[in-house]
Structure formats: structure tokens, C-alpha cells
Design a protein that fits this description.
By secondary structure, this protein is of the alpha+beta class. It contains three helices and six strands; from the N terminus they run E-E-H-E-E-E-E-H-H. Helix content is 31%, strand content 21%. InterPro entries: GSKIP, GSKIP_dom, GSKIP_dom_sf.
Length: 140
């Protein structure tokens, strides 16, 4: 499984979703491909969780994708990504539970922040290291 140690210099500069993953269809209206959005979400925060990947079992569509995440506390979740945001839809990989009424989060950062104290610590430390590096750059 993909477990990575954080290199703060590789911390993503962007926050939120990638603008360049929007597509324009033949009528000129914008269509988001949620699988690409989901891949961008995974790439943004993979360093701060034990494992995270777009589900290959659950169906991805233009308007929905599913992401499996295992926190550093070893808790597993299946997340649903839609225009409304991200939310937990099950407490295991590749599952959905219609009875779960979990809130939507605008960003993967706020969702993981609410689920995993270890994520919060790793992400915060990476941010601090990056700020220190920027501070050194500006001083030299």
C-alpha cells in the first residue's frame, strides 16, 4: 500500500480543487470529471494519511467519485466526492451506507481534520517546516 513520509518541500501549493481539471463539452458548458477531481484530492493529502486511493469498485461518474482513506490511526473510511463536497459514506473501503447522514465538507482538509488528530499533526508540522524554509529563503 502507498505509505509516504512527508517531504514538506513537496507539499502542494494549491488549496481546493484543480482548475485545469474542468472540461468544456460540445455545448460550451463546463463539465467536471469527478475521477480527476478525486485523484487531485488524493495527491494533495496522501502524505498525511496511511493510505488513500480512488475506489476502483464503486462507480465513478461526472458528478460523483469515491475515495478510500485509511488514517494514521488505522481507521478506514469511504468518502463520496460530489459538487457539494466530501463526506463519509461508510466506515470501510469500497462501501456505502445509505443510513449514514454525515455532513459535507468543502475541502478534504477540513474532513480529515475532523476525523484524524494524527492527520492534523502531520499536516500542521509540514506547514510549519515549509514556512521555516520560506523564511530562510527570504533571509538569504
Amino acid at each position: 500500500r502507498m505509505e509516504t513520509d512527508c517531504n514538506p518541500m513537496e507539499l502542494p501549493n494549491n488549496t481546493g480543487f484543480e482548475e485545469d481539471s474542468d472540461y468544456t463539452d460540445f455545448e460550451g458548458t463546463e463539465v467536471k470529471d469527478m475521477r480527476l477531481e478525486a485523484e487531485a484530492v488524493v495527491n494533495d493529502v496522501l502524505f498525511a494519511v496511511s493510505n488513500m486511493f480512488v475506489s476502483k469498485t464503486l462507480p465513478c461518474a461526472e458528478d460523483v467519485a469515491y475515495i478510500n482513506v485509511e488514517t494514521r490511526e488505522r481507521n478506514r473510511y469511504c468518502l463520496e466526492l460530489t459538487e457539494a463536497g466530501l463526506r463519509v459514506v461508510a466506515y470501510d473501503f469500497d462501501q456505502t451506507d445509505d443510513r449514514l447522514q454525515t455532513p459535507y465538507h468543502e475541502t478534504v482538509y477540513s474532513l480529515l481534520d475532523s476525523l484524524s488528530p494524527a492527520y492534523r499533526e502531520v499536516f500542521g508540522n509540514a506547514l510549519l517546516q515549509r514556512l521555516e524554509a520560506l523564511k530562510k529563503e527570504t533571509q538569504s
